[in-house]
Amino acid sequence: MKYKRILLKLSGESLMGDKQYGIDNDRVKQYAEDIKAVHDKGLEIAIVIGGGNIFRGLSAEKSGMDRAQADYMGMLATVINSMALQDALEKVGIKTRLLTAIKMEQICEPFIRRRAVRHLEKGRVVIFGAGTGNPYFTTDSAAALRAIEIKADVVLKGTRVDGIYTADPEKDPLATKYGEISFREVYDKGLNVMDMTAFTLCEENQVPIIVFDMNKHGNFMKIANGEPIGTLVK
Ligand code: UDP
């Protein structure tokens, strides 16, 4: 395998499948099976999940809610998603630990960096819940931060699109996909890979990012094997 330790970022929306809201169990099951296949190869896997399928702080602020309050609700949404994925992973026989940035002692461990690393070394899939634990951040930033902390080789951003395009492929039929692109080019071209805080963190700490389509069964294995699908930012 190309990598030893990876951080997989999944958006909350990706858990919706074809639904408009919430969690699609079939989709979560597919993710669990794909993650198991890669885990069986001996890779250390840490996961950060978003919460956009349940609650987004920024949207709630637009309808009048206090931003910080709304963001904490968003962080709780990520814990719900994390628990759903944890359940699905354990159903396929993987040992997992859920570590959250906000203490919830009855359901998970608090995030302690050294403990997270130890879990990974012992072959447990580690899920990081509640984002960074701070309002005004995103789960992309949590993914970048945790990846650096645990010294992951790469951030794999599993989305519904198969990479980074010159323009929005749903609007521009001439848009083409990058196989590889530098951090600098992403800034210069104004492309949207992750939010800027997350993106800069990865750049400054030399953590490459790969954007790929996680919804296609088997893609995660291809990426973990180093196959050039998706877009590599380095
Ligand atoms: N959030 C936050 N701090 C964090 C991570 C997340 O406040 O460190 C909140 C924020 O309100 C965000 C919501 O949690 O809208 C869900 O996360 P995100 O939007 O990143 O999820 P995704 O877009 O990946 O589904």
TrEMBL record:
Keywords, sorted A to Z: ATP-binding, Cytoplasm, Kinase, Nucleotide-binding, Pyrimidine biosynthesis, Transferase
Pathway: Pyrimidine metabolism; CTP biosynthesis via de novo pathway; UDP from UMP (UMPK route): step 1/1
Enzyme class: transferase
KW Cytoplasm (keyword) present: yes
The keyword Cell cycle belongs to this UniProt entry's keyword annotation: no
Gene Ontology CC terms: cytoplasm
CDD domains: AAK_UMPK-PyrH-Ec (cd04254)
Domain Aspartate/glutamate/uridylate kinase: 4-213
Pfam families with a match to the protein in the record: AA_kinase
Binding site for UMP: 51, 71, 132-139
Catalyses which reaction(s): UMP + ATP = UDP + ADP
Residue numbers binding ATP: 9-12, 52, 56, 159, 165, 168
Enzyme nomenclature, EC number: 2.7.4.22
Inhibition and activation profile: Inhibited by UTP.
GO molecular function: ATP binding; UMP kinase activity
Location, primary (coarse class): cytoplasm
Gene Ontology BP, a term: UDP biosynthetic process
Cross-referenced HAMAP family: PyrH_B
Subunit relationships: Homohexamer.
Record family assignment: Belongs to the UMP kinase family.
Protein function: Catalyzes the reversible phosphorylation of UMP to UDP.
NCBIfam families: pyrH_bact (TIGR02075)
Protein name, entry field: Uridylate kinase
Name of the gene this protein is made from: pyrH
